[in-house]
Design brief:
The protein is mainly alpha-helical. The chain is built from ten helices and no strands.
Length: 206
């Protein structure tokens, strides 16, 4: 009996090209106007395809946004998985994953500046926050009861909220400020900040 996992069916390249045209058209339009002002006709015209073709791929614009958000998370997860290395310490692995994520965002800056850098499509920020929350929760489970957070008596859910909010806030601010730091530098600064908790330490003599 063949126990090998079935391969995922390959999508027709023509379908992929059409979907990419539609996605690019939507991103271009979002640079110019709010999502409420965008119609299927405008997307189709921008993508140089007919309206009927749009409906072969998506039910409507909300469905398109949902699928684009799904694709975004899938791509990010693939990038992070490819950066995994069992030989690294937890801290080093965290930093390397964050660098890989930031490099991916920088390489696709036009897309991310629209979907994360503006408030026009909150679904993308919400999806990324959900993914980051899951990652922070998994890390805490890995660290267990011996972690400094547990020993300090900090509730796990509060620590997860704090950690995931810090990550998404840093990423969004970096994008909105036109990515002034390299992915490596930003990831290292974030790690230093989290490790030393500068914001929580009162200045000497005060």
């Amino acid at each position: 009996m063949d126990m090998t996992e079935p391969t995922k069916p390959r999508t027709d390249p023509r379908i992929l090209r059409t979907r990419q045209l539609l996605k690019d058209a939507l991103i271009d339009l979002l640079q110019e106007m709010d999502i409420e002002k965008i119609s299927v006709n405008k997307i189709a015209e921008k993508a140089t395809i007919n309206r009927v073709t749009f409906y072969l791929h998506y039910r409507d614009i909300p469905d398109m946004l949902e699928k684009m958000a799904d694709d975004m998370i899938e791509e990010i997860q693939e990038v992070i998985e490819q950066s995994q290395d069992a030989k690294r310490s937890i801290e080093d692995a965290d930093s390397h994953r964050f660098i890989s994520l930031l490099e991916h965002i920088a390489a696709n800056s036009k897309f991310y500046k629209v979907v994360l850098g503006t408030k026009r499509t909150p679904i993308f920020t919400e999806r990324l926050l959900k993914m980051l929350t899951g990652s922070v929760a998994a890390r805490m489970e890995l660290m267990g009861a011996d972690s400094s957070i547990s020993k300090a008596g900090i509730q796990k859910d509060i620590a997860i909220w704090y950690g995931s909010s810090a990550l998404i806030g840093t990423i969004v601010s970096w994008i909105r400020n036109d990515m002034p730091y390299s992915p490596t530098y930003l990831a290292r600064q974030f790690t230093l900040l989290r490790t030393h908790q500068f914001l929580d330490q009162p200045a000497k003599g005060k």
